Amino acid sequence: MTREVFAPGRVTILGDHTDYAGGSSLAIALDLGTTARFEASDAGVLSVTSEQSPNPVVLQAHDLSVPQHDSFARMIAGLVLEMTQSGPFPSGELHLRSSLPLGAGLSSSASLLVACALALGVDLPPLEFAMLVQRCESHAGQEVGLLDPLSIVLGQASTGVHFNFADLSWSLAPINHAGIFTVVHSGVTRSLATSDYAIRRSQCQDAAQLIGPLGSATLSDVATIDNTILRRRARHVVTETQRVSACADALEGGDLTLAGALMNESHASLRDDFDVSCREVNQLVDSLNSQQGVYGVRMTGAGFGGCVVVLSDEVDLDLTPGTASWRVRPSSGARVTSNKVFGEPR
């Protein structure tokens, strides 16, 4: 049996660092992503190769050990460990290729894991699938939320997905406008495992211990927090959750001016209250916001570098030569693209 699948990346339009805090997010699946091709065998060995990794990962049914310094291998081993707790060992060859830049805030690791799981035959409802991917990232030392895998699994063409992480619900958010989304790389790459991501998550947990779940808290609640840092972290989650709903309504109604203003407010919150931006990203946001036809710009993803997302008219952005950028559109979620049984005509 040969199976080929595609798992897109994700761009957050609004609502970063809110998923693990019980807030809201608005995201789209990209037309960039990971393609995985699996050829099953009965050799009792899984060999995983990737165009973006020089070293193959080789796992045996009786030995899932991998080098601890290799996060890619640890994620794959974590996936196989999860799968074999309730099913057979996935023996065969798995090859990966991706059009997503690594460490750019576009969910390259979640895209890779969703593609691997789907290619190896994982068949679960969306939330259970996303939780599986979340656990696999944990095997590599990355404690992440559910925004990325859910966006990748649930994405649909021409719509965003509006998530409420307080009750783990979601709805489609139509995007009815003639504007353009462009993703622009700041030139700064990062790894969640080596960034302050875990610290921010812990700070949100500490704030929630004081005022209750941040996704349902009010600014009046936030004002009661004495610790300045925790108060700022909580304020971001509360105000960002409010902005997400307003932005979803604005994009559905075609109000690019309001949507862009909310994106700008979101970036300021991530920069000032959550401290996850950096000088290069802020300079890029300011430069893009000064250009004709641009409505709003914000960092997208966990921050500490990576990409920004721009909402604009149909204009050519003035970028420094060599700057990586992609015009993106809401695209379909993870899917099987080819599924052949041995012996079928080719």
Automatic annotation (TrEMBL):
Keyword Magnesium recorded: yes
Gene3D superfamilies in alphabetical order: 3.30.230.10, GHMP kinase, C-terminal domain
Domain Galactokinase N-terminal, chain residue ranges per copy: 5-36
Start and end residues of each GHMP kinase C-terminal domain: 249-315
Entry keywords, A to Z: ATP-binding, Carbohydrate metabolism, Kinase, Magnesium, Metal-binding, Nucleotide-binding, Transferase
Domain GHMP kinase N-terminal: from-to ranges: 86-155
Pfam families linked to this entry: GalKase_gal_bdg, GHMP_kinases_C, GHMP_kinases_N
Record's keyword annotation contains Metal-binding: yes
SUPFAM superfamilies to which the protein is assigned, alphabetical: GHMP Kinase, C-terminal domain (SSF55060), Ribosomal protein S5 domain 2-like (SSF54211)
Single GO molecular function: galactokinase activity
InterPro entries: Galactokinase (IPR000705), GalKase_N (IPR019539), GHMP_kinase_C_dom (IPR013750), GHMP_kinase_C_sf (IPR036554), GHMP_kinase_N_dom (IPR006204), GHMP_knse_ATP-bd_CS (IPR006203), Mevalonate/galactokinase (IPR006206), Ribosomal_Su5_D2-typ_SF (IPR020568)
A cellular component term, taken from the record's GO annotations: cytosol
One GO process term, biological-process aspect: galactose metabolic process
Family stated for the protein in its record: Belongs to the GHMP kinase family. GalK subfamily.
Protein known as: Unannotated protein
Annotated organism of origin: freshwater metagenome
